[in-house]
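Homework help board

Subject: predicted structure for assignment chain

Our instructor gave us this sequence and asked us to write out the predicted structure in token form, then describe one feature. I got the tokens but I'm not sure how to describe them. Can anyone check?
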Amino acid sequence: MGWEHAINDYIRFLRLEKSLAENSVSAYVRDVKVLRSFAEDNLGKEPESLNADDMSLFLEFIQEKNYGHRSQARILSGVKGFYKYLMVEEVIDVDPTELIEGPKMTRKLPEFLSITEIDLIIASFDLSKPEGQRNRAIIETLYSCGLRVSELVNLRITDLFFNDELIKVLGKGDKERLVPIGKKAIKEINLYFHSRNGLKKIHKKSENILFLNRNGGKLTREMIFTIVKRAAQAAGIKKTISPHTLRHSFATHLVEGGADIRVVQEMLGHESILTTEIYTHLDRQYLKDTILMYHPRKGKG
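My token output:
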């Protein structure tokens, strides 16, 4: 069959049968081309001729090339998909990737803030400045509701149901969800409305947007990052902070407090419970660190 023929057929399969976006097709093919270069340069073999031993050599090759663990896992995943396709098309009888395992992936636990650090950040704003109350309300809302940045900047006034202590959030894939909002966040947003109502002009497209810049337009994602970083610096916090840190803190504090993981999943808008489960690992790490720090037997053998 040959590499050129096999890859072109695979591209058609991904586009037509799998209906993948062009970026996804390019990513899959890029991974297969890493294997192609290795096989042609080192083995002189076509795709249908490669065996399990060749795949072991390929695995050693990408490890020696200093690909990171994530890149190695992604390349192997792409290659495995390619050979599954060749099996379906009956180009090969045996899948040479079947027994090949990639690197063990370790999930980095996200940085999060303590409740004290959250309070320090919220207290750091100078409320005598025009943007002070707005920025305080932004931080309180990010933390109180566990929002993504995109969800915060697109939050509309008509999405606020303060009598029910709920807000409606438009998440990934335009999926809507209702999220509880605490009394502190409600208070800060209501205080912010005084300065919002005092803006000289509000852009027509932004009339229903909750958080606005000084010119009456929607805030950018970049501006939210700047607000959060400056607030952390003003509070004397040395950790690397982003708006996502507040989302991680929201989830961590819920899990530490005993919240059911599926409730946390729902509030974060995670499609898969597996994404949310990282917070159970984080919770275990927190418990371990707490025990090692405070348990009377911690230093005795």
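Reply (TA_rk): Your tokens look well-formed. For the description, you could write something like this. The domain at 115-293 is CATH 1.10.443.10 (hpI Integrase; Chain A). That's the kind of observation they're looking for.
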